Amino acid sequence: MKKPQLYGILGSMVVCSIVLILLFVIKMNSYTVPEEEGIMVSFGDSFEGSGIEGEAAQAGGAAPKIYQPKSQQFLTQKSPSVSLGSTTDKKEKDRLENLRIEQERQASEKRQRDQEALAINEMVGNVFGSSASSGSGKGSGNSDKEGFEGNPAGRGVVNGNSWSLNGRNLVGNLITPRYEQNVEGEVTVNIRVNENGIVEGVSIGVPTNISDATILKAALEAAKNTRFSAGKGKATGTITYHFRLK
To answer: What's 197-219 look like in SS3?
Structure first.
């Protein structure tokens, strides 16, 4: 017998032995669906379900007691119930009341500022009201020279302060207010200038965010002392002073 044939026979025997061993070791369980079992119900045809008969009740036995519930005392709330909406209503009332108080405060402050501005205007009017003077005189000059027509723009800025007067020029420097207070803000002064360039009327204008009476008076006096170029008729304008912290 040749070696390859011998090896084939031995291999076949080994494989068969392994298969047989596996068949003995491994079991294939078959799954069986259990049948549904019914419930036995007795319909009374058997004596087994009759049970043991009880003794007959003795005649004339005691009557059964009747249960009577005792009266119970329930707790009642004597205080009036609190509505859920009462808290919300109170908050709304408080908000409206605070809003009304704030509006009244702002209105009172505005009235006070208006009264202060009016008092300052009246005070300055009394001081400067009688200062205007009129006079006449003769002048001399060269009639062949052209006259000064004025500034068409009529506005300018000097040292942070601005002025606006249609058709007029600033003569000299823009007078600045003299004050000692350490304040910051702006004051607008309405001015009325006559034909000679003299400021004959002043009042506090807008925008103005300073309410100090001394500062307002200083601004009015500075505007009153400012001079402009002459022109035909009267002119109105403004001077705005910017106050800075020292």
So the answer is: CEEEEEEECCCCCCCCHHHHHHH
